[in-house]
Amino acid sequence: MLEGKTTTAGLKVQQRTAAQSKTREARQRTLFLWGLLGPTVLIVLAVVAYPFVYNVVLSLSNMNIYHIRDWEVIGLQQYASVLTEPAVWVVFFKTVVWTLVNIVFHVGLGVWLAVILNKAFIVGKPAWRVLLILPWALPQYITALTWRGMFNYEYGAINLIGGVFGMDSIAWLTSPFEAFVAVILTNIWLGFPFMMVVALGGLQSIPGELYEAADVDGASEWTKFWKITAPLLRPVMIPAITLGIVWTFNNINVVWLVSNGGEPNDQTHILVSYVYEAAFSMYRFGWAAALSMVIFGILFLFTQVFLKKTNATEAAY
Amino acid sequence: MAKPNSTNLGGMIWAYAVLAVFAFISVYPITRIITVSLRPGDRLLSTSLDFIPDGATLDNYRVLLFETPFLRWLFNSLLVSVVVTITGVALASTAGYALSRYKFRGRNSMLGGLLITQMFPATMLLLPLYVVLINLRLLDSYLGLVVIYSATALPFCVWQMKGYYDTIPPALEEAARIDGCTPWQAFYRVIFPLAAPALVITALFSFMTAWNEYVVANVVLQDTAMFTLPLGLKMFQNDMSTQWGLYAAGALLVSIPVVGLFLILSRYLISGLTLGAVKG
What we know:
Number of strands of chain B: 0
Order of helices and strands of chain B: HHHHHHHHHHHH
Largest interface: A-B, 98 and 96 residues
Radius of gyration of chain B: 24 Å
Shape of chain A: flat
Number of domains of chain A: 2
CATH topology of the largest domain in chain B: MetI-like fold
CATH class of the largest domain in chain A: Mainly Alpha
Largest sheet of chain A: none
Number of helices of chain A: 12
Helix content of chain B: over 70%
Helix content of chain A: over 70%
CATH class of the largest domain in chain B: Mainly Alpha
CATH superfamily of the largest domain in chain A: MetI-like
CATH architecture of the largest domain in chain A: Orthogonal Bundle
Order of helices and strands of chain A: HHHHHHHHHHHH
Distance between the termini of chain A: 69 Å
Strand content of chain B: under 5%
CATH superfamily of the largest domain in chain B: MetI-like
Oligomer: heterodimer
Number of strands of chain A: 0
Number of helices of chain B: 12
Largest sheet of chain B: none
Structural class of chain A: mainly alpha
């Protein structure tokens, strides 16, 4: 009896200390977790979450150059004004064209070059790879400023080379359509290596036997590409394409620097450069904040739908 | 888009031709920068397409280094970039570790929230922060710049670090814990050194975010002496009188180190990206 008592008591003590050390461990774990995450959470709250909320407030306010300190919340007026301004719709259309054309060329050229570079008979692969990756490595603003120089009417390399082949000089930077083509060409140049590298990574994981089997069946290169390469590259390319679309849609650097802030005559804009100008050249703060929200809304909805759609079809493979 | 047939000679020639054309297109603009930077001052506006210009000289580099604020801008850019790099590595390596190893409430929304920030247009954070900086009279200071750059670089860095930690087996920390390490020691002494490749990429990415940034700096900095390199180089490209020689010389000097680093490390950059993207 006595013995039994002490054992149960001892067991209880043991259990208690076990429970204690368990809670201590849990507390330690929480403390450690917050030690790791805390600084990042604080910074993100201060410089991402707070400005985001502030931007929402600004988008509901009348803040501009005349009301920089005595601004007040006026409701949804700015959104109404954004959506009813015809220029916004024109710029939106241009942004969609800009994004689509760029992504089609980035992915098309990137995958094409990756497939060629992946062929067994190509000699000096690392060297080709380095040469083809250079446009991605060069700082974007330098790419943009350099291409602006190359598009110069009289002294730019593009017209000079065109002249060698007997083409007439094109007023790249002073006519609206040509300027838009110029910014797109620049961005295609700097964007295809990213997709190429992603595709090269994806190609490594496709087993060679698949192609051998296809060869036995006498499949053409074209069939092999669409029946083997394309479907198996999909899972790798979809996240890259999603990112690429978001980045391109928001890529202010190239548009702003090649067209020198929308030249000629504010005709060369995508939404993000348009809102940048509204905010920092015209000081329409409330209006710009509302347009920022609209851009974010578009991208958010797009990625949700795009990822859901592509995931759904992915299950078919 | 015709497909080359790998088995015959024609296909091989075609493949090499395509590679050669695109390699030329990739390299050509860079050769133009070199050419223009070597032109003597009186021949900057030239219609020549020669690679080495007539009367090639390093004069533009001399003027750039000793008669413009280039070195001052270089110092400013280095200062901002180094601070952003340190912040990025310190925060992303710890936060990424927590997100990789621990399951806790709010983890998924935290990861999702970080991704959502990638969809913000440039003005989304810049405009409110600009208004705050005006009110705090902090325009024309590096603090604002460093804060915005860190916020821009952090989400990608955290994802990238998390993705890398996911590939390190947790058994390593467990073994360290059994040997008597505290959780912090297990992280700092065992896992942190193993994550060196990812840390290098995080550092490179943070550094390049700050080193290559124009749009934010253009709003925050107004005094020429405070300029970072992108603002300075853009200044040479004035509408009225573009100083092409100075611009080209500067562009080359600024690009060489980052392009070199990038070429060496790009292989890891992309693997980090796909790891981060594929693993939820």
